[in-house]
Amino acid sequence: MVARLSRLKLKLWLSVVSVALVIGGQAWAQNSALEQEKATLVSKFAKFVNWPESAIGSEFVIGVYEDTERYEFFKSYFKNKGVNNKDISVRLITTFNEVKNVHILYVSSNKRNVLTSADKAVSGTPTLMITENNNDLNKTMIDISSDEAKSNITFKINDINIDKAGLVVPDLSYFVDDSNNDSILSIGPTYALQLKQENELLALENKFKEEKKALENRLVKQEASLNKLNEKLNESQESTEKYNADLKASTERLNSAQDQMTKLSQEIGAKDAQLQSLEEQLKALQENKSLVVEDNAETPNENLQALNENAIAQEKAIAELTESLKKQKDIANNATAKLAKLAKISKEKESSSSFEILFYVFVLIAIIALAVAFLMWKKAKSSALASTRPAPVNEKNSLLPIREKQLIRSENIAALGYIATDITYAVGLSLADLLEQLESNGDTKNAATLKPVVSLLDNFNLIAADQDDTEIQSFDLIAYMNKMMMLYDFEFNQSNINYNYSGESSLTIKSIPSYIALVLLNLINNSLKHGFDNNGNGKISLNVEKGANNSTKITYSDDGKGMNKATLEQVFTPFFTTRSDRGYIGVGMSTTFELVKKKLAGDIKIDSKEGKGTTVSITLP
Question: What EC number(s) is this enzyme filed under (predicted)?
Fold first, then answer.
C-alpha cells in the first residue's frame, strides 16, 4: 500500500513538472518572438526614417542604454547587416554624453526612470529615441508597447519631438507591412567586401593549387625524363669511351700498318735497285755472250754451256725477284686500302659521337630553361599571394592587387622571352654547325631532317632581332609575313588549324617590320586564346592586296566564336578582357590599335558576330 502511494506521488510530481516546463517553454518562445518583432520594427525605423545630412556618417549606430541583455540581442541580430549602404553598429550606452554619436537611442522598459535625462540628452540632436511601455509620450519620440497575452506589439509616434530633431518619418504603412520583413536590411558593405575578398582569395588559392599541382606533375615527368636522359647519356658516354678505345686501337693499328708500309716501301725500293742491277748485269751478260759467240767461234762447248747455265740461273733469279716484288706490292695495296677504311670508320665515329653529345646538350639546355621558368613561377606566386591579402576598406586600393599581379606576370613573361631568345640563338648556331658538318660528311639523310629545324630557328631569330629595330625599312612584306607564319606551323598542326594565304606573291613596302610582326602576333594569339578558346579546330585566313594611293590592305580573319556587340565596342580598350579568370591582362588589341594608328600611321577596323568569327582590316600607307 505504501509503495503504491509513493508511485502515485511520483506520477503527480512528474505531471506538475511537465506542465511547468510546457508553460515555461511557451512563455520563452512567446517572449523570443516579441523580441524578434521589436528588432524588426527598429530595422524598419532605421531604413525608412530620413536623417539630416549632418547626421550622415560612415556607419549607422544603434545605441542601447544600460541594458546588456538587449545590447547582446541587438548585436547578434544586426551582425554583418547594413542599411542604405552603411554598416550597422550596435553600442552599449552608459552615459548620455555618448548620445550625440548615435542615430537611434533605445531605452528599455526597466530604464523608464531616466527618460527625463534621456530626453534632455537627445534634445537638439538628430537622434531618434525609442522607448518601451512608456506612459508619458512627451518624453520620447517612439514608444513600443508589447501585449504578451495577445503576442503582438504596437507603437506610438510623437511627431512634435521628431520634427524638433530634424527627422522625417514616412507614411506608417511602411512600418505595418510585414510582407518583406526578411529583406528590410541588406548585408553590410564591409562584410560584403570581406566576403568578396575572401572568395577572390579562395578562388586564387584554388587556381594556384591547380597550377602548382600541374607544374609538380610536369616536374615529376621532367625529372623522370631527365633520369632517362641521364641514363642514355651515361650509356652514350660508355659507348663513346668504347668508341674512343676502339679508335685508339684502330689508330695504333693504323700507325703499325703505316710503319709496315714504310718498311715494305723501303724493301721494295731495295728490291727495285737489286732488280735494276740484275737487269743491267743480264744485259751486259747477253752482250758478252754475243761477243763470245762472234769472237770465239772455236771456243770449247763446255765454256759456252757454262755461260748458258749462268744466264739461265740469272734469268730465273730475276723472275723470282719480280714475283716477290709483285706480292709485296699487293700487300702494300691491301694495307693502303685498310688504312683508308680505318680512317673513314674513325671519321664516322667522331661525327656520330659529336652528334649524340650535341643532342644531349640541347636537351639539357631545354630542361634548364623549364627549371628557370618554374622558379620564376614560384616567385610570381609568392608576390601574387602577398598582394591579394584583405586590405582596409578603401575603394581606391581595391584594384591594386590585380594591377600588381598583372605587372608581375608581365615582367616574368618578358624575362622568359629574353631567356627563350638567347637559348634559341645558341641552339640555332650549334645546329647550323652540325648541319654543315653533316653535309661535309655526305650524310644527306640526317642533313635533310635537320634543315627545316635550322630554317625555323633562323626565322625566329630574325623576327626577334627586328624587335629592337624601330626604323623605317624597305622590305618584302609577303616574304616577311611568310617567315612569321612559319613559326606557327607546329602550333597549327597540333591544334588542327587550317591556315590559308591569298593575294600578292611579292610586295615591297616602306614600313617598320617589327611593329607589323607584333600586330600579326597579337591577332594570331587572340584567335588561338579567345576565338578558338585554346581548343583549336578552326581556320585562319590572311590576304594582302595593293590599295589606292600606293597603300597596302591586310585582311586577317578567323572562323572562331566571334564577339557580341558589348565586347566589340570595348575590344580596343586597355586592360579589357573577357577571360580574366585565365590571367589574361587585356592589352593585346589595345596595343595593336596603338601600333597601327600611331606607329605605322595606318587604320584598323574590326568586324565580328557571335558564332561567325572575326575579321580585322588594316590599311598601311
Answer: 2.7.13.3
The ranges of the chain with pLDDT < 50 are 17-28, 292-300, 303-304, 307, 350-351, 353-354, 377, 380-381, 383-399, 411-412, 414-416, 418
Whether residue 201 is found in the same domain as residue 316 = yes
State how far the Cα of 513 lies from the Cα of 576, in Å rounded to an integer: 27
3-state secondary structure 532-581: CCCCCCEEEEEEEEECHHHCEEEEEEECCCCCCHHHHHCCCCCCCCCCHH
Domain identity same for 159 and 226: no
Cell digits for 436?
Answer: 654543315
pLDDT at 390: 45
The Cα 409–Cα 384 span in angstroms is: 9
Looking at the domain assignment, is residue 519 inside a domain? yes
Which pLDDT value is given to residue 297?
A: 44
Same domain assignment for residues 24 and 154: yes
Is there a contact between 109 and 133 (Cβ–Cβ < 8 Å)? yes
Domain boundary (145, 175, 205) is at 175
- The DSSP result for 188-227, as a single string, is -HHHHHHHHHHHHHHHHHHHHHHHHHHHHHHHHHHHHHHH
pTM beyond cutoff 0.70:
no
Are the C-beta atoms of residues 457 and 427 closer than 8 Å to each other?
yes
CA 466 to chain centre: 25
User: Does one domain contain both 139 and 249?
Assistant: no
Taking phi over 0 as left and psi of -120 to 50 as alpha, with beta for the rest, 168 belongs to: beta
Question: Cell 500500500 belongs to which residue?
Answer: 1
| Position 180 in a domain | no
**pLDDT tens by residue, 335-373:** 556 555 655 555 555 445 445 555 555 555 556 555 555
Burial degree of 221 (CB within 10 A; 0-12, 13-18, 19+): exposed
Specify whether 381 is located in the same domain as 520: no
Distance of CA 374 to the CA centre of its chain: 10
The reported pLDDT for the residue numbered 506 is: 92
Dihedral angle at the C-alpha atoms of 178, 104, 185, 36, nearest 10 degrees?
A: -50
The pLDDT assigned to 389 comes to 43
Strand, coil or helix: what is 331?
A: helix
Report yes or no on 162 lying in a domain: yes
Host H or E run for residue 448: helix 444-466
pLDDT of residue 159: 87
What is the per-residue pLDDT for 545?
A: 93
Q: For the chain, state the CA radius of gyration.
A: 51
Residues 169, 212 within the same domain:
no
Asked which of 355, 387, 419 is the last residue of a domain, the reply is 387
Q: What is the pLDDT of residue 606?
A: 93
3-state secondary structure of 475: strand
- Number of compact structural domains in the chain: 3
Which domain, by its residues, includes 225? Answer: 192-387
